[in-house]
Amino acid sequence: FRLTPGSPKWTHTNLTYRIINYTPQLSKTTVETAIEKAFRVWSVPSPLTFTEISQGEADINIAFVPREHGDNSPFDGPNGILAHAFQPGQGIGGDAHFDSEETWTQDSRNYNLFLVAAHEFGHSLGLSHSSDPGALMYPNYAYSDPSTYSLPQDDINGIQTLYGPSNSPIQPTGPSTPTACDPHLRFDAVTTLRGEIYFFKDKYFWRRHPQLREVDLNFISLFWPFLPNGLQAAYEDFDKDLVFLFKGRQYWALSGYDIQQGYPRDIANYGFPSSVRAIDAAVSYRGKTYFFVNNQCWRYDNSRGTMDPGYPRSISRAFPGINCRVDAVFLQNSFLLFFSGPQYFAFNLVTHSVTRAARSNLWLNC
Amino acid sequence: LPVPPEDLEEKNAKTVENYLRKFYHLPSTQFQSARRNSTMVAEKLREMQRFFGLAETGKADAATLEMMGKPRCGVPDTGD
């Protein structure tokens, strides 16, 4: 996180705000609810309180304005700059302006008012931009489901540096952005997707480009706002050009970046008994899909649409040398790459043996 | 018709200057020599690339231009 140079902050903690005008795209109630929720993001981890006033001079004035609007920082029409806010202080200090030419929403369509407002109020309180891509105070817009939104730890650290901890006996904590070269990094799921490799972790994924070997970190919601965080398994069905993603007993089918109609579905469709509550990992190879659950492996016949007889089998019997619980697995050339904790094992499908073991985050160029 | 490269170059240069002026306090260039200006732009580009964890090339490469095209907050990334 970063504090605004000079660390300007409010000298009182019971702050007032006033909504000067509204956007025609949302009802007044929806705007008020989004603004109130955005302030609550900051009041929970700090001693700050926010009270709305409808008359007089508030600490934080909120307005929807277009283009040049008198503060020497003009907006630029749809997209580009979405909003800005001023550091704590008298007059314009603390005020937040939203570009009235944007499309303001209360869902995953660009741009969610709650998320942008929560970010701008961070500036109103004295925070600058964070270089942590998972932080609320990261400069670029990134959608997260408001109903499950939790202020990241980076932002909690920032606001508590300015105003101290919250008054509640239990200090709130938040999610931290995974770092590629963390030696303890373990993946939730891995799959190929039309030649690229996707490594899923919490609400993020790393995307590895085969030729460039470049790896970039993205929010899952950037590509697939309808998917939950914390996916558990994923595989690519090359024949159908589909990717299947699993969490709990639910699964989704993606064609590129689009979700297939009629999903999520229940894994009972594959023939799993109700005793199977979740899948650890999955990979499809030569018309068969292998599912890994605890220390067992199931094999599903893609064309017959049923589980093969003789399964489930123990993983170590089906894949000699893989004697551990599997977090994730994907296919590359004639190898299955099994990930377990911070390690991966290359299983050669020709010799039917493990030919290499190394650190998982080698795949993230670490 | 494909955009002729010199137009694209010009367009990218404008995008870069605009972005760096707004968010990295690139000084206006009217009283500066072209050489001094290009040094300043490269320096500010590296600052932006460092902030976003991009390769610090000092050049407007594809990843940098892609980052500059993303919707964002209007507050500068450095300074007050």
Task: Give structural notes.
The complex is a heterodimer of chains A (366) and B (80). With 366 residues, chain A is of the alpha+beta class. Chain A is 13% helix and 31% strand. Chain A is built from five helices and 23 strands. In chain A, the strands form five sheets. Chain A has a five-stranded mixed beta sheet with strand order 2-1-3-5-4, covered by helices on one side. In chain A, strands 10, 11, 12, 13 and 14 form a five-stranded antiparallel beta sheet that branches. In chain A, strands 15, 16, 17, 18 and 19 form a five-stranded antiparallel beta sheet that branches. In chain A, helix 1 packs across helix 2 (113-124). Chain A starts with 13 loop residues before the first strand and ends in a 7-residue tail after the last strand. The model of chain A has no long low-confidence stretch (mean pLDDT 95). Chain B is mainly α and 80 residues long. Chain B contains three helices and one strand; from the N terminus they run H-H-H-E. The model of chain B has no long low-confidence stretch (mean pLDDT 85). Chain A binds chain B through residues 4-6, 73, 75, 79-85, 87, 110-111, 116, 119-120, 123, 128-129, 131, 133, 139-141, 214, 216, and chain B through 22-23, 51-53, 63, 67, 70-75, 77, 79-80. Strand 4 of chain A pairs parallel with strand 1 of chain B, so a sheet runs across the interface.
In short:
The complex is a heterodimer of chains A (366) and B (80). In chain A, 13% of the residues lie in helices and 31% in strands. Chain A is an alpha+beta fold.
Which key phrases capture this entry?
heterodimer, A: 366 residues, alpha+beta, five-stranded mixed β-sheet, five-stranded antiparallel β-sheet, B: 80 residues, mainly alpha, 3 helices
